[in-house]
From TrEMBL:
This is Leucine Rich repeats (2 copies). SUPFAM superfamilies: RNI-like (SSF52047). It comes from Roseiconus lacunae.
Length: 560
C-alpha cells in the first residue's frame, strides 16, 4: 500500500510493490519540523489527522488506515469502489478502453481515430498508445484519492462518506461497520481528460483550441480549461511534466470534484489568485516512491527556487502584496516567476507548519475562492507569515535528520541554511542532480563526493564561500561535462581545478572571485568554446593578462 504523509516525514508501506498500481493511502499531517517524525508515524498511523471538527473526516481516514493494514479487505474496497477479487489488493481501479466514438465535437477527432478510456473518476480521450494511457490513468486515480484525503472538507463525496461512516458504538472498526452492507461511494460525474500523442500534437491541439500561439503553448506540458471542463496532457514521464500534470489536475479537482458554485467565473478572478496557483504548486511536490507517497516537505523542487530568492537575491515578497491580485493582474505581471515562487512557498508553509489554525484558514480561503459551502469557522489571516515562511526555508541539521528526503533530487539549494557536514550526510547520494547550490556551507570535498558520486548530470553548481573546498575536487569535477554555470568564489580552488574543466565544452558562466587561480590557467579559459561570463577579481591573475583576455574575447563579460 502507498502511505502518504504531509510535511516531509515518511512511514513504511505495507507493501513495497510497484507503485504504478498502488492505492492512495492514509494521509497524515504532522508538523514540518516535528522531531522523530518518522518514528511517530510508524508507531501511530493516525498521528496528525486534522483536529478540527469536520464530521466524517476522521472515519474516512480510518478506512484508508485499515485498508493499508489489510489491502484485500472486500468491505473496504467495495466502499471505495476499488476492484474486488485481487489477491494482492494492488489493483487501483478498473480501467476500460474502447474504440473512441463520443469525444466532444470541439476536439475535432473522427470516430475510431482515438481510444476512450474510462476509470472510476475520469473519462480519457487518448491518441497515445495503450501502455502510456494506462500509466497516466492510474496516476490520475492515485492523485484523486490522495486529494480526497487531504481536502476532505471540500470534496463532493464528503456527505456520502459521513453518512455511511457515521458513528455506531456497536461497531468497532470501519471494516466491521461496513461489513455485509452495500455502502459504496458514487461519483456525480467523471472528469474529462484529453491525452495527446506527444508534445507536437499537444502544442498544435492547444493552439487551435485556445487561439494561442504554437510557441507559447509549447512551453507548457499540461493545461486545464475551466471553460471546457477538460484537462489536456501528453504522456511525458519526466519529473517536470508529471509535476505539471498534477498541478493542472488540482485545478480540475477543486472545480469539478467539489460542489463548487463558481459557474462561469474563474477562481481568484478578483483577488487571492496566489492561493489558486499556490495550492496547485504545492501538489506538484507529490511523489510516489518505494511504496509510499509524500506531499510537501523541505525537498519540494519548488522550494529550492524560493530558497534561492530569499537567501541569494534577498527577496521576501510580503503575502499582503500577493493577495490583492486576481487572475488577470497576475497574468500581466512582469515578475511571474517571483510571484509563483512566493505563492507556492507561503502555501507550503501554511500546509506544513503544523499549526491547525493556519491550515484551517487555507481551507476556508479555498472554499471561498471556489464557492464551496463548508462548515469551518472563518479565521483571521495568519500573523507574520513572512517570518514563518523564511524560517521554513532555513533548514538545519536537525531538520534534515528528522525529515529525510524521499524523492529523487534534481534540484537542491541549501544556500542560507544552517547545514554542516553532519546534516549533509543525512541525504542519500543524489545521482540525478542538475542544480546544486551549497553556498556558504562549512563542507569539504569529501562531503561533496559523498552527496554526488559523479557530477555528470550537473548543469549548475555553486560552492561559493565554502572555505574548505579546494583543489581536491579537481578529479571529481572533471566528470561534470554538462556544466553550464560554476561558482567557486571564495574557495581555495586554484589552477588544478581549472585544468579539470578543459573538456567541459558547455560552460558559459564561471565565477572565480577570490580564488587562487593564476596566469597559468588563462590558456585553458581561452579554449572554453561557450564561455560568456567570467569573474577573476581578487585572484592572482595579472592586470596585463586580463587586458589580453579582453582583446582576445571582446564578447566576454569579464569581471562583470
Amino acid at each position: 500500500m502507498v502511505l502518504v504523509i504531509l510535511g516531509g516525514g515518511h512511514f513504511a508501506s505495507a507493501n513495497d510493490r510497484t507503485f504504478a498500481y498502488a492505492i492512495a493511502p492514509t494521509v497524515q499531517l504532522p508538523s514540518h519540523f516535528e522531531d522523530q517524525c518518522d518514528r511517530v508515524c510508524r508507531s501511530d498511523p493516525g498521528q496528525g489527522i486534522p483536529k478540527w471538527d469536520v464530521p466524517g473526516w476522521e472515519q474516512y481516514m480510518q478506512v484508508w488506515s485499515e485498508l493499508a493494514a489489510d489491502p484485500t479487505n472486500q468491505s473496504l474496497r467495495q466502499f471505495l469502489g476499488l476492484p474486488i477479487g485481487d489477491d494482492t489488493g494492488q489493483s487501483l481501479a478498473a480501467i476500460r478502453a474502447t474504440r473512441g466514438r463520443s469525444a466532444p465535437s470541439w476536439i475535432g477527432w473522427k470516430p475510431g481515430t482515438y481510444a476512450q478510456v474510462d476509470t472510476p473518476h475520469f473519462q480519457i480521450f487518448s491518441r497515445s498508445d495503450r501502455d502510456k494511457t494506462t500509466e497516466v490513468a492510474e496516476d490520475l486515480e492515485r492523485c484523486y484519492w490522495v486529494w480526497t484525503q487531504i481536502f476532505f472538507p471540500l470534496w463532493e463525496g464528503r456527505a456520502q462518506a459521513t453518512l455511511h461512516l457515521r458513528d455506531d458504538s456497536s461497531a468497532g472498526t470501519m471494516s466491521d461497520r461496513l461489513a455485509g452492507g452495500r455502502a459504496r461511494l458514487s461519483t456525480r460525474k467523471k472528469m474529462r481528460v484529453v491525452l495527446l500523442r506527444d508534445a507536437d500534437d499537444y502544442g498544435r491541439t492547444l493552439a487551435r483550441l485556445t487561439g494561442g500561439s504554437l510557441q507559447a503553448v509549447s512551453q507548457s506540458t499540461g493545461f486545464y480549461s475551466s471553460e471546457r471542463r477538460t484537462s489536456f496532457f501528453f504522456p511525458d514521464q519526466s519529473g517536470d511534466a508529471i509535476a505539471s500534470r498534477r498541478h493542472e489536475l488540482v485545478h480540475q479537482l477543486f472545480r469539478e470534484a467539489t460542489r463548487s458554485q463558481l459557474g462561469g467565473d474563474e477562481a481568484g478572478a478578483r483577488s487571492d489568485f496566489w492561493l489558486v496557483e499556490g495550492i496547485a504548486g504545492y501538489f506538484e511536490s507529490m511523489h510516489f516512491d518505494n511504496g509510499f507517497a509524500t506531499v510537501g516537505g523541505w525537498d519540494s523542487p519548488r522550494l529550492q527556487f524560493a530558497r534561492y530568492r530569499v537567501f541569494a537575491q534577498q527577496q521576501v515578497v510580503p503575502l499582503a502584496a500577493l493577495r490583492p491580485d486576481g487572475q488577470t493582474q497576475v497574468q500581466q505581471r512582469g515578475d511571474l516567476a517571483q510571484f509563483y515562487a512566493f505563492a507556492i512557498a507561503y502555501t507550503h508553509w501554511m500546509m506544513d507548519s503544523g499549526d491547525v489554525a493556519t491550515r484551517r484558514w487555507i481551507y476556508q480561503m479555498l472554499a471561498d475562492l471556489y464557492r464551496i459551502k463548508i462548515d469551518v469557522e472563518t479565521l483571521n489571516e495568519p500573523t507574520d507569515p513572512e517570518r514563518g515562511m523564511v524560517a521554513m526555508l532555513r533548514l538545519d541539521d536537525a531538520t534534515l535528520a528528522s525529515n529525510p528526503a524521499g524523492r529523487t533530487l534534481e534540484q537542491l539549494c541549501l544556500r542560507g541554511c544552517l547545514v554542516s557536514s553532519k546534516g549533509l550526510s543525512q541525504l542519500e547520494p543524489a545521482e540525478r542532480l542538475r542544480w546544486l547550490d551549497l553556498t556558504g556551507l562549512p563542507i569539504n570535498g569529501d562531503d561533496l563526493r559523498r552527496l554526488v558520486k559523479s557530477p555528470e548530470s550537473l548543469t549548475q553548481l555553486s560552492l561559493e564561500a565554502c572555505p574548505m573546498i579546494d583543489d581536491a575536487i579537481a578529479s571529481w569535477l572533471r566528470s561534470a561535462k554538462q556544466l553550464e554555470e560554476l561558482d567557486l568564489s571564495g574557495t581555495r580552488c586554484g589552477d588544478l581545478v581549472l585544468q579539470s574543466l578543459a573538456e567541459t565544452t558547455s560552460l558559459q558562466t564561471l565565477w572565480l572571485t577570490d580564488t587562487q587561480v593564476t596566469d597559468k590557467s588563462l590558456e585553458i579559459l581561452s579554449r572554453l568554446p561557450q564561455l560568456e561570463t567570467i569573474d577573476l577579481r581578487g585572484t592572482a591573475v595579472s592586470a596585463e593578462q586580463i587586458a589580453r583576455l579582453q582583446r582576445q574575447h571582446p564578447n566576454w563579460k569579464l569581471n562583470p
